[in-house]
Amino acid sequence: MIASSVELRCFHRCDGVRFAVTEPVYRCPRCRGLLDVVHDVDALRSVSGDEWKLRFAARAGGPHIGERGPKALRSGVWDRREWVMPGLRDEHIVSMGEGRSHLTLAERHGASIGVPELYVKQCGASPTGSFKDLGMTVLVSVVKEAVAEGRPIRALACASTGDTSAALAAYGALAGLPVVVLLPRGKISTAQLVQPLASGAKVLALDTDFDGCMQLVDALAEDGSVYLANSMNALRLEGQKTVAFELAQDFAYEVPDFIALPSGNLGNGYAMYLGLRLMLELGLIARMPRLVLAQAARANPLYRAFREGAATVTPITAEPTLASAIRIGNPVSAPRALRALEETSGIVEQASEEELADAAARADRTGLSVCPHTAVALAAVEKLAKGGTIERHHRVVVVSTANALKFTDFKVRYHERTLDGVRCERANAPIELPATLDAVRAALD
Ligand SMILES: *Cc1c(COP(=O)(O)O)cnc(C)c1O
Ligand SMILES: [Zn+2]
Question: Is there a domain that residue 435 lies in?
């Protein structure tokens, strides 16, 4: 074992601000900035980049939990536990076998948009159907350890556009910890609402939007009533960053030219950057891919800031969008995302309702099955290819963030042609017929 450690530090590295990862603290007490989980990179360097690659390769195929341990665990997050949460005790790991997701070569769709080497990283292929599981396994595990250490944590809580609450409720239930979720009433899909209910969470449906829920849960966490499980909490990002490790491994550490992610609260884009940066620092990869953060045009505060070259993101009121999980006007991780963009020569692109619905329909027809958020990222890549930023020889990865089956409402309405303001040109409705051979034959002709 190598001696490595982690701690929470200020995003702006204010002097003397250091906390144990088990402390319920989410902002710097000096500047009110966000916190980072900071690893002892020098200690990690005592193992060479090539040796890390071999270790991870050896674990990828089978069960893994640390050097030894009673539980057979197949998790892409805990495969790299030294880089995620070193020192966490085996018995506190709360995992459902998340990560190790597939990478699909989207051959036909890629060819149709001028990106022959287009890949989709299937992060929606996960226990609760979204990438949020990757972060939640880390956060809930650390909370389990904190509780075991005697920290008084009454309940875990989050505001959510749907997927965070599904993941938190499930991992909380797995750990036997109480969960409270604050949801914007009527603004998430049926499947997403059912998930935390079924997992037994206390679900508070509020007459506000996500940003309103976020403000409330932030205040509850501040006074210590609950433990905050939103991605403002840096522990989440430690799990989510493992997508970068998996991608690099899948490409034999020759990283793609562009990685596109649908972006709302902006934690995931920063997590991807953190993963890439760590691999760069430890010598596993030689360069940074460019990040493409893709927003719905109706919820695009980062896109606006990027266009204006602004140094900060100005909050807006996000409008309703089919990409409901990224309907966020006041993204908590905006400073983090701006840093990720700066460090990766990143780009922000947006997609209209029509563009995202059409991209989803065309992608689905090539065998993919994409949620509306993933469609936003696909549409963004398509626009960048049209504009010449992405060229034919570039290798591009779109991170698919959720399982499309969480959003059947969207697909049903598309194929029924009942989506407001969308042309639904590729709708494929069932053909209703009498059950006779003649009628069926006629339909086939
Ligand atoms: C949470 C989520 C996102 C956005 O991630 P952020 O970290 O909030 O930017 C994108 N797609 C889906 C399906 C999500 O659930
Ligand atoms: Zn600070």
Answer: no
For residue range 49-71, list pLDDT tens digits in order.
999 999 999 888 766 555 444 45
Beta-sheet strands, E only, within 263-406: 290-296, 347-351, 395-400
Return the residue whose CA atom lies nearest to atom 14 of ligand 1.
325
Query: Is 200 domain-assigned?
Result: no
CATH number of the domain within which 283 lies: 3.40.50.1100
Instruction: Return residues with CB closer than 5 A to ligand 2 (ion).
Output: 10, 12, 14, 28, 30-31, 33
Mean pLDDT over the full length of the chain: 95
Measured by CA distance, the residue closest to atom 15 of ligand 1 is 163
Structural domain count of the chain: 1
> Ligand 1: which of 265, 341, 350, 399 to mutate, most ligand atoms within 8 Å of CB?
265
Query: Could you tell me the distance, in angstroms and rounded to a whole number, from the CA of residue 13 to the centre of ligand 2?
Result: 6
Pairing of strands 6-10, 35-39: antiparallel
Instruction: Say how far apart CA 128 and CA 168 lie, in whole Å.
Output: 9
- The DSSP result for 404-442, as a single string, is GGGGHHHHHHHHTT--TT---TT--------S-HHHHHH
201-223 CB burial, b ≥16 within 10 A, e <16: bebeeeebbbbebbeebbebbee
The pocket around ligand 1, CB under 6 angstroms, is made up of: 130, 132, 163, 231, 262-268, 325-326, 371, 373, 401-402
Which residue's alpha carbon is at the smallest distance from atom 10 of ligand 1? Answer: 262
Asked whether the predicted pLDDT for residue 1 surpasses 90, the reply is: no
Phi-psi region of 186 (alpha: psi -120 to 50; beta: other; left: phi over 0): left
For range 187-194, the mean pLDDT: 90
pLDDT in tens, 235-292: 999 999 999 999 999 999 999 999 999 999 999 999 999 999 999 999 999 999 999 9
Q: Is residue 26 part of a domain?
A: no
- Ligand 1: atom nearest CA of 267 is 7
Tell me the pLDDT tens digit for each residue of 11-30: 999 999 999 999 999 999 99
What spacing in Å lies between the alpha carbon of 401 and ligand 1's midpoint?
Answer: 7
What token pair was written down for 43? Answer: 């200690």
pLDDT number for residue 68: 47
Residue 346 maps to a domain: yes
Which residue segment(s) compose the domain that 407 sits in?
103-129+236-415
Among 130, 192, 231, 403, the mutation site with the greatest number of ligand 1 atoms within 8 A of its Cβ is 130
